[in-house]
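User: Here's a structure from my thesis project, written as structure tokens. My advisor, Dr. K., wants to see whether a designed sequence matches the one we expressed. Can you design one independently, without my sequence as a hint?
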């Protein structure tokens, strides 16, 4: 639930823009919604959309992912890929995210 809500927040921010009122959180998403959104984002072919969501280019994101996998002990868990873990970290670190945004 924690991981899905962070990606939901990222998706809402992208869809609604910064100045719009925050919509109610949807709790009926499946467990793979975050991964599906990230896959769609990385494969969309729109560099500005990717940069706006991840705060870096697709190539930089892939490079960071590869470095983390090859030089650290960061590994995918049963339900969360390394890419999704990195996207969640970037969401928290690159925005003034509140605790509510990350829950």
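Assistant: Designed independently from the structure alone:
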């Amino acid at each position: 639930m924690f991981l899905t809500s962070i990606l939901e927040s990222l998706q809402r921010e992208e869809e609604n823009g910064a100045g719009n009122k925050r919509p109610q959180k949807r709790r009926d998403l499946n467990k793979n919604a975050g991964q599906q959104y990230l896959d769609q984002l990385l494969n969309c072919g729109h560099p500005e959309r990717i940069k706006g969501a991840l705060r870096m280019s697709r190539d930089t994101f892939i490079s960071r992912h590869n470095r983390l996998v090859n030089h650290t002990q960061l590994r995918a868990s049963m339900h969360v890929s390394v890419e999704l873990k990195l996207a969640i970290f970037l969401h928290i670190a690159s925005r003034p995210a509140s605790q509510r945004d990350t829950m």
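When you compare it with your expressed construct, this may help: The longest helix spans residues 2-16.
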